[in-house]
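User: quick one, sequence for these tokens?
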């Protein structure tokens, strides 16, 4: 993957890395499809988060998210995309279950004016076939430059 760069402005949550599946592609995110393993955060991985605002510090959250899709058989809920057929379970129906998981790497961390925070591989190791990496800044006028290295 090499280096990836992203300018984050405002307090809207932004996806930095999508799930590592070939059907996920978005020009507003870093591409994770070219990562060779299921684990993001190998020996040379690091991320820099630079506060580029001229006058204010920034508080930010960096976190992983995952969603769960569920299925129901006779009103009993199961999880995942099991290899079940309607012939075996005629009362089965699939629906999206509102189960979202969030796991924080950084929570409400303050980066002072003109300061860069570096995260290394130990901070960033996760399974990118399951989780998306997201960032959210604290204020509408906040600005952070993100650089991710995966060489």
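Assistant:
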């Amino acid at each position: 993957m090499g280096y990836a760069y992203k300018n984050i402005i405002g307090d809207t949550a932004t996806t930095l890395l999508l799930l590592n599946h070939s059907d996920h592609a978005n020009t507003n995110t870093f591409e994770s499809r070219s990562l060779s393993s299921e684990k993001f955060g190998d020996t040379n991985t690091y991320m820099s988060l630079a506060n580029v605002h001229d006058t204010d510090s920034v508080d930010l959250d960096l976190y992983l998210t995952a969603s769960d899709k569920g299925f129901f058989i006779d009103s009993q809920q199961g999880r995942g995309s099991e290899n079940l057929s309607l012939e075996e379970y005629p009362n089965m129906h699939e629906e999206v279950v509102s189960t979202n998981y969030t796991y924080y790497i950084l929570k409400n961390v303050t980066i002072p004016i003109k300061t860069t925070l570096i995260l290394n591989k130990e901070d960033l190791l996760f399974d990118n076939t399951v989780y998306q990496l997201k960032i959210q800044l604290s204020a509408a006028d906040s600005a952070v430059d993100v650089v991710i290295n995966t060489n």
